[in-house]
TrEMBL record:
Residues 56-69 have a biased composition (Basic and acidic residues). This is Secreted protein. The chain crosses the membrane at residues 6-25. Keywords: Membrane, Transmembrane, Transmembrane helix. Residues 54-84 are annotated as: Disordered.
Amino acid sequence: MHALLPYLTLLGFLAAVLGFFTWLARRIRRRGTAGGGMSGALAAYEEAFRATSHASHHEIRAQGERKAPTDSPDGLRRRRRGKG
């Protein structure tokens, strides 16, 4: 048992560090306190290791940058009619 103690200690330390960074990343994303560098680093990580999450990230950013439809001068919104 004494021979395994250093390995178990190292494994516990690594698990604690990874858990801390996971918690920190979630908190930064949720609160939106990430600067440009942190946001870019997290996007690069997602692109490398989570391809579907990376695609969702770009779609959410594109949706956020779109402008909402504005009212017409008479105050009513009009729908465009599709072809056919």
